Amino acid sequence: MSRPLYTLALTGGIATGKSSFAALFREMVPEAATFDCDGCVHELLTKPAVSRMILDSLGVDLAGPDGQLDKSRLRERVFHHQGSRRALEEILHPLVREECQLSQQRAALSPGIRFFLMEVPLLYETAFPLARDLEIVVACGPATQRERLLARSRFAPDLADRIIGAQLPLLEKVARAGAVIWNGASPAVLRRHTFTFSTWLKRKMTF
């Protein structure tokens, strides 16, 4: 029998440390189930049916020599052309939302699960419709964000700037969040912040 879960929506900017926080949260809160929207997108892009929908909508020139969707070409297209990005989102976002909802329903049926953490990078940009009890933003300074993105992705600087610019400004996300995790320092500091947050959350749920 399903039961209410305390649902947390985790967001932030690209390269601010959302996934690092989520991994620490899973470690510190074993009674939590999680869902990663970005991970779901990566999985969807491996499905032939989804790739075909994207090629039919955005153009067969996005296919590589093997006829399969070329993810690097797709990335370049959607961050150069706003219309292409919207067309891609119209294909992917409903599928991701459906998978997230199913994951939440499975969590509600799982013994010992009290929390559901969904990692939604575009939580505010897309008006993500799933109900949640608390919104969390992981944030850092703009220079740190850009430096981390360039270091981890090896994107050209102009592409990195376009990707960051396509998202809602971090300060606006911070202003809308119910909780903010600042990740502008070392991994050890993020671990301490996550421990403090998870301890607070567990205590909150005992009342």
Short recap of the structure:
This protein is α/β, with parallel strands linked by helices. It has helices at residues 18-28, 37-44, 48-58, 71-78, 82-108, 142-153, 157-165, 170-176, 187-204; strands at residues 6-12, 32-36, 115-119, 134-139, 179-182.
Tally the structural domains. 1
Q: Give the CATH topology.
A: Rossmann fold
Structural class: alpha/beta
Question: What is the β-strand count?
Answer: 5
Question: So what's the overall shape?
Answer: globular
Q: Radius of gyration in whole Å, from Cα?
A: 18 Å
Mean pLDDT: 94
Give start-end ranges of low-pLDDT stretches: none
Percentage of residues in helical conformation: 40-55%
Superfamily at the CATH H level? P-loop containing nucleotide triphosphate hydrolases
**Largest sheet geometry:** 5 strands, parallel
Strand order of the largest sheet: 2-3-1-4-5
Approximate strand percentage: 5-15%
CATH architecture: 3-Layer(aba) Sandwich
Quickly name the level 1 CATH class.
Alpha Beta
The string of secondary-structure elements, in order, is: EHEHHHHEEHHHEH
**What gap, in angstroms, lies between the N and C termini?**
23 Å
